[in-house]
Design goal:
Chains A, B: InterPro entries: Homeodomain-like_sf (IPR009057), HTH-type_TetR-like_transc_reg (IPR050109), HTH_TetR (IPR001647), Tet_transcr_reg_TetR-rel_C_sf (IPR036271), TetR_SbtR-like_C (IPR049445). Chains A, B: This is TetR/AcrR family transcriptional regulator. Chains A, B: Pfam families: TetR_C_43, TetR_N. Chains A, B: Keywords: DNA-binding, Transcription, Transcription regulation. The structure is a homodimer of 216-residue chains. With 216 residues, chain A is mostly helical. Chain A has two domains: 57 residues, Arc Repressor Mutant, subunit A, CATH 1.10.10; 148 residues, Tetracycline Repressor, domain 2. In chain A, helix 5 packs parallel to helix 8. The radius of gyration of chain A is 20 Å and the shape is elongated. The termini of chain A are far apart. The interface between A and B is large, with 40 and 39 residues. Chain A binds a DNA duplex (30 and 30 nucleotides) through helix 2, helix 3 and helix 4.
Chain lengths: 216, 216
DNA sequence: GCGGAACGGAATGTTTTGTTCCGCTACCTA
DNA sequence: TAGGTAGCGGAACAAAACATTCCGTTCCGC
């Protein structure tokens, strides 16, 4: 029997491989967040492994992207769940938005969409994520902390905007995104409505769903 | 002597070529706005001409991009100039922002940056554009219509965010961008400051300038 | 001590794309 | 009216990028 003793943790082919599992996924995350069309070789290099180590784990680039997206959806759900548990609705909303933006979940999900065929698990998580975001927003609105005329389909458009900020290193990017998230949040408060109502109409769920249909 | 009579306007190789000049530049604008990395062939197809018609006018893709960017900078300057002439500072500011966003000037300039070596004319126009934007913003701030703590280097970050909205056809994109521009603008008004000051620091001009250094 | 898991990296085949080239059309000028 | 040629369409070409495969090597695990 394979007894996982101390050695398994310290060294050994098996343990090294397990560590590579994490290294590769972490590298894929940072690489594809920075550049959604990065070549596979970049991920391997960032992980400090050869290409074959990557292809041993994922049969194709598509599979890697699918896994990464799953990872992103799980992060979304976790962040939204945590925000639901914050007692103050406004604070919960802010924590939610900041969490999504800080973790760059949008780049891990929507920016990878259309590059792999979604599994039922993807769909299920996406539905759950949408429902949770709905709840966080509506709770904040009903408490009077967020202006009306805003739907939950407006939120992805805000992530999308903030995810587009890519200036400088990771630290500066995060700082800038928080800065402009503050502007968005100020514009979403009820007092902002006195400057005029929101014009136009929010995207429909179908509009948003269309981004998941395979492109190539 | 070549007398440009009526025929020149209606037909003739010369006139057709002149019309192609415009068609190609217009096609390049729409194509590269939609997809900054589009291949040259796409531009020719959108213009309804062959590839050679394009290469007769521009010696390389790089030259085409450089010309397009020049075009974008001129549009920026024109929009800013017009905004300066609006008497009400806030209205001028709004008109300026809406003009930049509607014309997608950001996609015509920053999104093409780093793909060609800028000429002195590029630099000159960029300086002029920056100065004009400065003026529009400061005028609005000094009239008390825009909150403090905001610098003119914040503005490109806002264009960048709005330019990232790409959902549906041209019409819907414009509608959505206006919708979220409203949110930004509400967040920039003095009343929004009561929800807290802007955190972090705006980018430096050097940060912004770095985007113009050749990449490939 | 040996079988094979794990791996690094070169090699491969394909796709994409910028640019050139060739033959053709039809305007312009003499 | 006839040759010269500007302008053009699109095939052809070469180079680059990239996903994926393959092979030789190492060294863990039994």
């Amino acid at each position: 029997m394979t007894d996982p003793g101390e050695r398994t943790v310290l060294d050994g082919r098996r343990a090294q491989a397990a560590r590579n599992d994490d290294a590769i996924l972490a590298a894929a995350r940072t690489v594809f967040i920075a550049e959604p069309h990065a070549p596979v070789g970049d991920v391997a290099r960032a992980a400090g492994v050869g290409i074959s180590a990557l292809y041993r784990r994922y049969p194709s680039k598509e599979a890697l992207l699918a896994t990464l997206c799953l990872d992103g959806l799980r992060r979304f759900v976790a962040i939204a769940r945590r925000a639901c548990e914050v007692t103050d609705p406004w604070e919960g909303f802010v924590e939610f938005m900041r969490g999504i933006v800080d973790a760059d979940v949008h780049s891990l999900t929507v920016h990878l969409a259309g590059r792999f065929t979604p599994t039922p698990e993807h769909r299920g998580l996406a539905v759950e994520a949408g429902a949770l975001a709905d709840r966080v927003l509506h709770r904040a609105q009903q408490s009077g902390a967020v202006r009306g005329g805003l739907g939950s389909t407006d939120l992805p458009m805000i992530y999308e905007q903030l995810a587009a900020i890519r200036l400088g290193d990771t630290g500066q990017i995060r700082e800038l995104r928080r800065r402009y998230l503050d502007v968005h949040l100020a514009g979403l408060r009820p007092g902002a409505a006195s400057y005029g109502p929101l014009t136009g109409t929010a995207p429909t769920p179908a509009d948003l769903g269309a981004r998941w249909t395979r492109t190539a």
